[in-house]
Amino acid sequence: MTALTLSTAAAPGLRADAIVIGVAKGAASPSGNLTVAPGAEAVDKAFDGRLAGVLETLGASGSEGEVTKLPAPAGFKAPLVLAVGLGSEPEKDAAFDAEVLRRAAGAAARTLTGAKKAAFALPVTDAADLGAIGEGVVLGAYSFDAYKQTAAADAKAKNDKAPLAEAVLLGGKPRDAAHKAALARAVAVGEELNRARDLINMPPNDLDPQAFAALAQTAAKEHGIKIQVLDEKALVKGGYGGILGVGAGSASAPRLVKLSYTSSKAKKHLAFVGKGITYDSGGISLKPAGHNETMKCDMSGAAAVFAAVVAAARLGLEVNVTGWLALAENMPSGSATRPGDVLRMYSGKTVEVLNTDAEGRLVLADALWAASAEKPDAIVDVATLTGAMMLALGSRTFGIMANDDAFRTAVHEAAEEVGEPAWPMPLPEHLRKGMDSTVADIANMGERMGGGLVAGLFLREFVGEGITWAHLDIAGPAFNEGAPFGYTPKGGTGTAVRTLVRLAELTAAGDLG
């Protein structure tokens, strides 16, 4: 992981591989000329106040995420200046948005792969800005190369591929309590989000339900989190028909993992439930060609929940947080659940399985009922649940459904605050009838149109009476198949981790219900 430090040093005298500055599209200028953002005054002065003009000559426009390199001026101990675009300059007396700084820092960190040290002279008005920049650096510097081999003799090539080793955040005071706390939070949240990314990117032959549970046990021991793992025998004894039904076709048996972080000062209890399908073939309702290649990411919800619980423990939040990881592999075989089978769920309710590729809602249903038994103040489930949600919201925004409008709004605001695009979605009652079954209490499929909302309505059936609940369908943003952008890499993104952590923080502070 990239090391983060704070410094009040001036950029010219700092020994580093690069100085990172921000540039923006000038709001005050009629022509929208480039402007140098606050924090880079010493760099601009060394260019005799002409840095913006030099960058424009090199083609810089100030667009968000745009990176322009130029040699550092005489007298600098760093050889390179890296200018990253911040988009439009904010209105007079306004500061740059935290997410803009987070993305800019991430883009710069990605560009500086192979560098040992970089100084970030981006705009800083308060501790929150430092936290956003630090988080962006940690997330942007992420790489997943555990399965790539570099010849031992080619040490230089290996170093060139290494993430940025150290980032010095200028404008931060090393002895300021708020600044130190913001940096510590950025490190904890960033590292745990990257843990989720690692899990999502792991190939399914190495991350089956048992392996996932074992990794959770190791992390729980390290961070003082109580853990309980239900194996297939315990699942049978407990009557977890949904999880067992989904995992029936695989040689890798399913697991239900419960992670419990508790605080002696807690007044509230949150439960997070994650879909953990370590590989989804679709089961007997096999996915068509072209839809299988990224299905290792179908455990992204469980990865997010796992990471969020560990982050809460690392931050010492004064709230009790329980994470439920519903882990199974959905495979076709002679023992697999068939379309037309009826499963008896942990709640006792029966479900007619009309499509075995609608498996996520089955494992979540059992975990939601288990979470409900503890009567938490709120439950939030996270799942790569439906392609319908991707059709509705695209690849960068997740949907939020809930049984309480105020809670749905609170979750949406928390997501937007931490920079995770989300959108509130309804649960139309008329869609519930489409899941009526002639042989069971409910079917796992309903109307095709509005399929993401139908899935939410199904899950609602398994939330305990009187418990506030929200469902995050992260099917779109969980796995980035395109080019990296900002602090988001190609592959697993770790989306929803920051939203869950923020919900825990707000609950601990008494600001969420």
Strand order within the widest sheet? 8-9-11-10-14-18-15-16
- Helix tally equals 15
Rg (C-alpha, Å): 24 Å
User: What helical percentage do the residues reach?
Assistant: 25-40%
Average predicted local confidence, pLDDT:
95
Largest sheet: 8 strands, mixed
**Structural class by sheet pairing and helices:** alpha/beta
**Shape descriptor:** elongated
Oligomer: single chain
Percent of sequence in beta strands: 15-25%
Distance between the termini: 35 Å
Q: How many strand units?
A: 20
Q: Give the low-confidence spans.
A: none
Characterise this structure:
By secondary structure, the protein is α/β, with parallel strands linked by helices. It has 15 helices and 20 strands. It is 34% helix and 21% strand. The longest helix has 25 residues, at 177-201. It is elongated, with a radius of gyration of 24 Å. The relative contact order is 0.11. The model has no long low-confidence stretch (mean pLDDT 95).
